[in-house]
Specification:
This protein is α/β, with parallel strands linked by helices and 434 residues long. The chain has helices spanning 3-11, 18-29, 35-48, 52-63, 91-101, 120-124, 136-146, 159-169, 177-190, 211-227, 250-260, 267-282, 289-301, 304-315, 321-324, 351-361, 402-413, and strands at residues 78-83, 105-110, 148-152, 195-202, 231-238, 246-248, 334-339, 344-349, 377-380, 387-388, 393-399, 416-419, 429-433. The strands form three sheets. A six-stranded mixed beta sheet has the order 3-2-1-4-5-13, sandwiched between helices. It has a four-stranded antiparallel beta sheet with strand order 6-9-11-7, with helices on both faces. The protein has a three-stranded antiparallel beta sheet with strand order 10-8-12. Strand 1 (78-83), helix 5 (91-101) and strand 2 (105-110) form a beta-alpha-beta unit. The chain is globular and about 65 Å long. Bound molecules: uracil. Residues 84, 165, 179-180, 183-184, 207 line the site of uracil.
Length: 434
């Protein structure tokens, strides 16, 4: 078999056989197929597409390019979630303890991630002593004992994706539905959960800018998940403004704790109830999403979700006192308000730009090697549709120095657009695909 023939076949609109796809993924992972040929193939796939059979074959070939996690030592239904990435996305910190308290097992691998803020692991490391560098044995044992554990990603999970994604990033071939589906689903399938729930964001701060594109991606992801034998659902959510109010690391943990204490309603809680509702319903632990939502709300009312987080923090070497007393979490030296220069209704909050303010403050990572400051970030006070008086604060900047803080104040102000007319609050959950 020759890679050149496969490129020509896809370029001319043909469908690749399972054998051809396996040859291509194995050959590329082993370094036998050069980058230039794989780049040409990615472009041919972007232009010509792939049907479900091809996308499934690509997903499975990528999944088997490295280690896979066998979660069978864990008793009960195991669920995992994936988000296509958003600004202020602290969903896992709320969702996982809530769902675990309701009886679904969470055995989750998470990453640090590059970008505006750290990933879930960085955020969790705000709890003094907390570590995700735990052995597989401890991971399984903790999930069996307390129902939840979060472990750092092992190096050899889906090596094919690491290579292909790096190539797509520099060859204009990221926005291809079959390539995105196989990239995301190979990693989720390799992580071993029975139930996979996907949060597909759309809007300014998201990867998919329109609702139609997000729906097409969500359908593709759930179809491939089901064809691979897993229970799968997707929720399409708005990312035209940051999720919740906080963007950073410790500030996001503090917000998550407020939701778990039952002190904050709104988009973040709504998202967690919907994703968690899908997990319980797909896992057969609830009759439907409504029933599941009620059970999840109960874990907040009776404090069991907050206790579950404390148990996880403790079991992974952290100080759970900070779960009940957020003043023990990292705190920035300088806090500056951001007074609005004009009055009006908030028409837009550019999510991506708010993310860049967090990055400017040191809350994100530009390269894998950069270190991040867990204490810095932004806490918004206003959301789209709110009325603001001139001089009223739009949010608080948490900074490590007064100079950085002042710069961030100006940057954050520019993230807001105003309207003299009332602005309708955008609907947050756009669709649920089950
Ligand atoms: N996230 C991924 O993991 N892969 C993609 O291709 C796009 C987003």
């Amino acid at each position: 078999m020759q890679m050149t023939d496969l490129i020509v076949k896809k370029r001319d609109g043909g469908a690749l056989t399972d054998e051809e796809i396996n040859f291509m993924i194995q050959g590329y992972t082993r370094g036998e197929i050069p980058d230039y040929q794989m780049s040409a193939m990615c472009m041919a796939i972007l232009l010509r597409g792939m049907d479900d059979r091809e996308t499934l074959a690509m997903t499975m070939a990528m999944m088997h390019s490295g280690e896979t996690l066998d979660l069978s030592p864990i008793r009960g239904v195991k669920a995992d979630k994936h988000s296509t990435g958003g600004v202020g996305d602290k969903t896992s910190l709320v969702l996982c303890p809530m769902v675990a308290a309701a009886g679904v097992k969470i055995a989750k691998m998470s990453g640090r991630g590059l970008g505006h803020t750290g990933g879930t692991i960085d955020k969790l490391e705000s709890f003094p002593g907390f570590s995700t560098a735990i052995s597989e044995e401890t991971f399984f044992d903790n999930v069996n004992r307390i129902g939840i554990a979060i472990m750092g990603q092992t190096a050899d999970l889906v090596p094919a994706d690491k290579k292909i994604y790096a190539l797509r990033d520099v060859t204009g071939t990221v926005p291809s539905i079959p390539l995105i589906v196989s990239s995301i689903m190979s990693k989720k399938l390799a992580s071993g959960a029975d139930v996979i729930v996907l949060d597909v964001k759309c809007g300014d701060g998201a990867f998919m800018k329109t609702e139609d594109d997000a729906r097409e991606l969500a359908r593709g992801l759930t179809r491939i998940g089901r064809l691979a034998g897993r229970k799968c659902a997707a929720v399409i959510t708005d990312m035209d403004q940051p999720l919740g109010f906080a963007v950073g690391n410790a500030v996001e943990v503090k917000e998550a704790l407020a939701v778990l204490r039952g002190e904050q309603e709104g988009d973040l809680l709504e998202l967690c109830l919907t994703l968690g509702g899908c997990m319980l319903a797909e896992g057969g632990l609830a009759a439907g999403i409504e029933d599941a939502r009620e059970r999840l709300l109960q874990t907040i009312r009776d404090g069991s979700a907050l206790r579950k987080l404390a148990e996880m923090v403790e079991a992974q070497g952290g100080d759970s006192a900070a779960v009940y007393d957020p003043s023990l979490l990292p705190d920035a030296a300088f806090k500056l308000e951001v007074p609005s220069l004009k009055g009006g209704y908030v028409g837009r909050i550019h999510a991506e730009d708010v993310g860049l303010v967090s990055m400017h403050l040191g809350g994100g990572r530009a390269t894998k090697e950069s270190s991040i400051d867990l204490s810095v970030g932004v806490v918004l006070k206003k959301k789209v549709g709110d009325y603001v008086e001139a001089g009223e604060s739009l949010g608080t900047v948490h900074a490590s120095s007064e100079e950085k803080g002042r710069e961030a104040v100006e940057l954050l102000r520019n993230c807001f657009e105003f309207s003299d007319e009332p602005v309708e609050r955008p609907s947050f959950i756009k669709d649920i695909i089950r």
